[in-house]
Amino acid sequence: MAQGRGSGAMVVVAAVLVLCVLLQAQVAESAVFTVGDRGGWSFNTNTWTNGKRFKAGDVLVFKYDSTAHNVVAVNAAGYKGCSAPRGAKVYTSGNDRVTLARGTNYFICSIPGHCQAGMKIAVTAA
After folding, report:
1. How far apart are CA 73 and CA 84, in angstroms?
2. How much is the pTM?
3. How far apart are CA 32 and CA 68, in angstroms?
4. Binned average pLDDT, 10 residues per bin, the chain of 126 residues
5. How far apart are CA 23 and CA 106, in angstroms?
6. Under CATH, domain 31-125 is a member of which superfamily?
7. CA dist list (Å): 41 to 3, 11, 25, 117, 126
8. How far apart are CA 51 and CA 32, in angstroms?
9. Cα dist from 40 to 61, 97, 113, whole Å
């Protein structure tokens, strides 16, 4: 049976639509969490993760006074020692959005004394 001129174009359009639906489904599965809930990113947020379940692709929103704090993505050693290794990603907007990677994601405030006072979190994403 002979195909019409538009058959190839229809297959391409259908394939693009299916791809769009699949990509949208991945985005819809991501959750957005405000670190510290209403209190935002502040001292003693290190227990904020208790009872929460995170997945890779979820987004953490850090809300804070950018004149007093920051957010630094660190490794396990940086988290434990409250120090930002060279080249660490530093966020300073006061309304930062960070997408979680699979595994444990570590964040501290690098303003002197803040991390030691509990301004740090470790978030494990499945």
Report:
1. 8
2. 0.77
3. 24
4. 58 59 59 96 91 97 98 97 95 98 98 96 97
5. 28
6. Cupredoxins -  blue copper proteins (2.60.40.420)
7. 61, 49, 30, 13, 23
8. 15
9. 9, 13, 18
CB 106 within 8 A of CB 122: yes
Give the Cα separation of 108 and 119 in Å (integer): 6
Tokens of 40: 């935002």
Distance in angstroms (rounded) separating the CA atoms of residues 88 and 71 = 10
Sign for the CA dihedral angle at 65, 69, 75, 81 comes to: negative
Report pLDDT for 25.
47
